[in-house]
Specification:
single chain, 194 residues, alpha+beta, 5 helices, 8 strands, 27% strand, disordered N terminus
């Protein structure tokens, strides 16, 4: 009887409707990426750039190596190097991965922000080709919301990336506006039930 009573009033015993509204049940946080994950990230950026969907224009090998060094800096120091007014600014940065067990990343996301008071900006996210179409994009973005909870998330994305747009909207991001180049801004609130 006492065990039943504890279960009824403990966190595990609450019905799903009484748990934190809007937050997916079982959503886990993402892991910090490791240095060996950077090659996977860069491969995805290169593939996106070939379709015109990358936030970086990879004109040559030097540009790719600069991006690699910036990602290494993010992995090792938690800082994203951002150019501002001809200077290099040190923003907070996180390169995170979605994994299943000890295998390679199913997907990754790069998020950065200017300081503790700013929203996190999602610079780039992807799901590995073999896992696309399985709902892992939404899973990645929901896990990002768990990992960076308490802070709004923002991103910009071409509407041509329909599967990524669908993943954002399913994960609780709302479309804010679309510019003349068909690039949409999305935002997820700091709290799940907003």
């Amino acid at each position: 009887m006492l065990t039943t009573f504890k279960r009824l009033f403990s966190r595990e015993g609450k019905p799903a409707s009484r748990q934190r509204r809007g937050r997916p049940q079982g959503a886990r946080a993402l892991e910090k990426a490791q240095e060996q994950d950077i090659d996977t990230f860069l491969e995805a950026v290169t593939q996106a750039d070939a379709k015109g969907h990358s936030p970086w224009v990879l004109r040559d090998q030097n540009t790719l190596e600069t991006l690699r060094r910036a990602l290494e800096f993010t992995v090792h120091r938690g800082l994203w190097l951002q150019q501002e007014n001809g200077q290099v600014a040190h923003w907070q940065g996180q390169l995170l991965s979605l994994r299943h067990g000890d295998g390679p990343p199913l997907g990754m996301v790069l998020a950065c922000r200017t300081d503790d008071e700013a929203a996190w900006q999602i610079r780039f996210f992807f799901i590995s080709r073999e896992w696309k179409g399985s709902g892992h994009g939404t899973r990645l973005l929901r896990a990002l919301r768990v990992t960076l909870s308490g802070v709004p998330l923002q991103t910009r994305l071409p509407l041509a990336c329909q599967s990524a747009v669908d993943s954002l909207e399913t994960a609780g991001f709302t479309r804010q506006h679309v510019d003349a180049l068909e690039v949409a801004s999305f935002e997820a609130p700091a709290k799940w039930d907003e």
